[in-house]
Amino acid sequence: MTLTVPPMAHDRLVALDRAHVWHPYAPMPGRTDPVVVESASGVRLHLAQPLEGVSELIDGMSSWWAAVHGYRHPVLDAAVHEQVGRMSHVMFGGITHEPAVRLATKLVEITPEPLRHVFLSDSGSVSVEVAVKMCLQYWRSLGRPEKRRLLTWRGGYHGDTFQTMAVCDPDGGMHSAWTGLLPDQVFADRPPAGFDAGVDEVYAGHLADLVERHADELAAVIVEPVVQGTGGMRFHAPGYLKVLREVADANNVLLIFDEVATGFGRTGELFAADHAGVAPDVMCLGKSLTGGYLSMAATLCTSRIADGISRGELPVLAHGPTFMGNPLASAVANASIELLMRNDWRLQVRRIEAALATGLRPAVAFPGVVDVRTLGAIGVVQLDRDVDVMAASRAAMRKGVWLRPFRDMVYTMPPFIADDQDVARIVDGVLAAVTAA
Ligand code: PLP
Fold first, then answer.
1. Which residues contact 88 (CB under 8 A, 6 or more apart)?
2. What is the pLDDT of residues 7-61, one digit of tens each?
3. Which residues' Cβ are closer than 6 Å to ligand 1?
4. What is the 165 CA–ligand 1 centroid distance (Å)?
5. Ligand 1 center from residue 258 Cα (angstroms)
6. Contact at 8 Å (CB) between 43 and 377?
7. pLDDT, tens digit, for every residue of 78-127?
8. What backbone phi and psi angles, to 5 degrees, belong to 384?
9. Ligand 1 atom nearest 262 alpha carbon
10. Is the dihedral angle over the CA atoms 108, 113, 114, 115 positive or is it negative?
């Protein structure tokens, strides 16, 4: 038996959405009409109703860093169908299954060497919560419960739950409204801008000094390596990761890399940590882990951390989401990683990087533009003012491109499968958005 649901009239759908459905960082009821997407395939979103004269949009956002292989990819679709035919979900307490075991083993294989143990959860924010819990519990187990603060640098973003908000940028971040309610963490200055800028010794000294001064109360340093994403799309020199590794080791502090956005090739290396050849004690992955098909994240840690926790008074990691290790998500994640390797992601990303660098360069001369930067399959145009999001995204739509500018930036991170023509269209969309912003 199949259930047939009659399609909803467009206007009714939009009205019900505005009345009942909360969207990210949005008011309730909604004040603007959302774009209704009916289906998606390849790099394109197909609209339920034409907008700005177009009925499909090239997705310049990869659904927020996630859809690296685009939509309706036959390999990923097949992985989901095949898994649905076996089971969609089963509890993970006391039970295991091949998709999750395969995935964890694969993640251990492709991430930096000492990461050996994998905790699968349902979202990037939760993976960071788990990372923090691992580090806090590690020190508790070793009889050092006072080591429970975190150090990070300003300008970061790690999620929307309370522990993660506490390490987002305390001023510019979207969570400044909660200051006073969040755990009080230690903040270093923003890392100096520029992937190629090299290590500024004064800033390195500042990091070292801060870690040293707070070492007795610090459980871990947590950063987004190389690219600070939602906090401002800023790039920094990979050399700072080495500095952090050295000062963390010297001061008996753990190191967490949040690679939820940067993982799986986006910055030009499989993991951003690989730019520096540095391994963290804990690594968070999410977003493109499943090729953007299903919500899943992973927290990896070293045996030192797992052993430490296991020796404690509470010898287990006290965390267990209902949908932990979800078989459907695991199956599609396995397929996505395999596809990444088979497609030669490095070549895909290099091609996009070159096209974005050349295509976006003219924006430097546009009025109000203060910076244009690209790294891997990421392109950013920064303005001297907050962007008029509606005007900018409508201008991109008229070029057939979906963008979601924020704060003072118009930016893109295309799906890796975007071909030269797609990237050229995305570039046109970004330039049009900047002009209209
Ligand atoms: N960490 C980083 C670096 C992110 O960019 C994000 C999301 O943008 C998160 C964590 C939170 O992930 P999620 O939105 O899946 O909870």
1. 326, 327, 328
2. 899 999 999 999 999 999 999 999 999 999 999 999 999 999 999 999 999 999 9
3. 123-125, 128, 157-159, 224, 229-230, 258, 260-261, 286
4. 11
5. 9
6. no
7. 999 999 999 999 999 999 999 999 999 999 999 999 999 999 999 999 99
8. -90, 10
9. 3
10. negative
